[in-house]
Amino acid sequence: MNQTAEIRGLLLVITGASFWGVGGTVSQYLFQAYHIEVNWLVSTRLLFAGILLLSIQFFLKDRSQIIFIWKSKRNALSLITFGLFGMLAVQYTYMASINHGNAAVATLLQYLAPVMIILYYVIRRQTSLTMQDAITVLLALVGCFLILTNGSIDQLSVPIPAIVWGILSGVALAFYTLYAVHLLKQFDSLVVVGWAMIIGGISLSTLHPPWHIEFTSLKVDAYLYILFVIIFGTMLAFWFYIESLQTLTPKETSLLGSIEPLAAVLTTVYWLKEPFGYFQWLGSACIIGMIIIVALGKRASAPAKG
Question: Which of 5, 47, 223, 300 is the most buried (most CB within 10 A)?
Answer without folding.
Answer: 47
